[in-house]
From TrEMBL, chain A:
The keyword Nucleus applies. InterPro entries: NA-bd_OB-fold, Rfa2. Belongs to the replication factor A protein 3 family. The keyword Nucleus applies. Keywords: Nucleus. GO terms for molecular function: DNA binding. It comes from Deinandra increscens subsp. villosa. This is Replication factor A protein 3. GO terms for cellular component: nuclear lumen. GO terms for biological process: DNA recombination; DNA repair; DNA replication. It is found in: Nucleus.
TrEMBL record, chain B:
Belongs to the replication factor A protein 2 family. This is Replication protein A 32 kDa subunit. One of its GO terms (biological process) is DNA replication. It holds the Pfam family tRNA_anti-codon. The lineage of its organism: Eukaryota, Viridiplantae, Streptophyta, Embryophyta, Tracheophyta. GO terms for cellular component: chromosome, telomeric region; DNA replication factor A complex; site of double-strand break. InterPro entries: NA-bd_OB-fold (IPR012340), NA-bd_OB_tRNA (IPR004365), RFA2-like (IPR040260), Rfa2/RPA32 (IPR014646), RPA_C (IPR014892), WH-like_DNA-bd_sf (IPR036388), WH_DNA-bd_sf (IPR036390). Residues 186-290 form the Replication protein A C-terminal domain. Component of the replication protein A complex (RPA) required for DNA recombination, repair and replication. The activity of RPA is mediated by single-stranded DNA binding and protein interactions. Required fo cell division in meristems. Involved in the maintenance of transcriptional epigenetic gene silencing (TGS) at specific loci (including some transposons) by regulating histone H3 acetylation, 'Lys-4' and 'Lys-9' methylation. The chain crosses the membrane at residues 6-23. GO terms for molecular function: single-stranded DNA binding. It comes from Deinandra increscens subsp. villosa. Keywords: DNA damage, DNA recombination, DNA repair, DNA replication, DNA-binding, Membrane, Nucleus, Transmembrane, Transmembrane helix. It comes from the Eukaryota.
Length: 106, 301
């Protein structure tokens, strides 16, 4: 039982509030880069991910890592989330998880 | 296979659009209707995420409660029975968690692993009693997302789950859905708490049938309140009178109708009318004289 190292559920907008802390988000892969990838968050913001990626990459990936800046994450774990994912639901979940229901998550 | 998981998507959409509306009573009803609708359809038997309100409210049958690991960490022991837990006021026995698997240790008789859902880490143990158990665990590898259903236990202050089902997540909308279900469950049990709390004040602040309408889905809660929510055929004023008499059940000689009129701030003719009706229904009776009445029992069953 350990709640010491949580990862906050964020979307593109919320990422800027958690720079320097551990976050998790799901993004759509736009293109792979050297050393990572560039993706689009569930609220249409650009996010750059640095780290090792699974191969092959699916359309959506979940990134868990530390937020470097308001637009980039240094990934610890990148997980393939398939080619079909409901971005709207996830986006609203992020807002709820950081709003009224924060206490259930962090 | 896909058909089943498309339910998660539809389900999430319903919940997601309805959660912001959950500040009003009627929306709670709408949510519960939706939940009931989906629980009747072909849902995965192992994870009963849509607990119908009646089942959850009934103390004797505990459903599978979707929780975040943070919520589990905050669960306290409920009452005298040290084997049950209490999460934000509701009893919890079996839990449903979705997270990533780490530290799988396989032994002869059991498999242990740690589950990380981003809100915390939880120790899980899966006993290998039958061939099915071993077969199920073969699919579980390090670093994958799984859905775990199990019995919440505590040992030396540390909580862990005795798992009876683990399955890999294949449609990742399930992760979004699980967290939404956690929020929904929390909202529902907190609302029940609030309404029960208000229920205690019911006898001094009597409400009319409007209260009945909005709390219709809580009919099974009535045993915990002295106000008869599901008392058919009894209208507003009658209910107030009955509630007052039931609240003062301990007074042997009964309550005088003058007191009823004064306390409930109602005209005497209305009181007398109610008293006659209730007497005919058989829920109150006259005691020392025709002006004193007493309820037949303390609370409606």
């Amino acid at each position: 039982m350990d709640t010491q190292n949580p990862a906050v559920l964020v979307n593109g907008d919320l990422l800027r509030n958690y720079v320097g802390t551990r976050v998790r988000t799901v993004i759509q892969v736009v293109r792979p880069d050297a050393g990572g990838l560039t993706g689009r968050s569930t609220d249409e913001k650009q996010i750059v991910v640095k780290g090792t990626l699974p191969s092959p990459l699916t359309t959506f990936v979940e990134v868990i890592g530390v937020a470097d800046t308001a637009q980039s994450i240094r990934a610890e774990i990148v997980t393939n989330f398939g080619d079909a994912f409901d971005t709207n639901n996830f986006n609203q979940l992020c807002q709820l998880a950081n709003g009224d229901y924060r206490h259930l998550f962090i | 296979m896909d058909g089943r998981f498309s339910y998660y998507f539809l389900y999430s959409v319903f919940i997601i659009t309805a959660v912001p509306l959950l500040s009003t009573q009627s929306s709670v009803e709408k949510i519960n209707k939706t939940m009931n609708f989906f629980s009747e359809s072909q849902f995965d038997g192992g994870s009963q995420a849509a607990n119908s309100p009646a089942a959850a409210a009934n103390r004797d049958t505990f459903g599978l409660i979707p929780l975040t690991i943070k919520q589990i960490g905050e669960a306290s022991h409920s009452g005298d029975d040290r084997s049950n837990f209490n999460v934000s006021g509701a009893d919890v026995v079996n839990v449903s968690v979705v997270g990533m698997v780490f530290n799988i240790v396989e032994r002869n008789l059991d498999v242990t692993f740690t589950l990380d859902d981003g809100t915390g880490k939880l120790d899980c143990k899966r006993w290998l009693n039958e061939p099915f158990d071993r077969l199920q665990m073969e699919d579980i590898r390090e670093g994958i997302y799984v859905h775990v259903d199990g019995h919440l236990k505590s040992f030396k202050g540390e909580k862990h789950v005795a798992v009876f089902s683990v399955r890999p997540v294949t449609n990742f909308d399930e992760i979004t859905f699980h967290f939404i279900a956690c929020i929904h469950n929390h909202m529902r049990t907190s609302k029940v708490q609030k309404i029960q709390g208000d229920g205690e004040n019911m006898n001094s602040i009597p409400k009319t049938t409007i209260q009945n309408g909005t709390n219709g889905f809580m009919s099974t809660q009535s045993s915990q309140n002295s106000v008869p929510f599901n008392f058919d055929g009894v209208k507003g004023v009658d209910q107030m009178v009955l509630a007052y008499l039931q609240a003062n059940f301990g007074i042997e000689k009964g309550i005088h109708v003058d007191e009823l009129a004064k306390k409930l701030k109602l005209p005497m003719n209305k009181i007398m009318e109610s008293v006659r009706t209730l007497e005919d229904e058989g829920v109150i009776y006259a005691t020392i004289d025709e002006f004193h009445y007493k309820a037949v029992q303390q609370a409606a069953v």
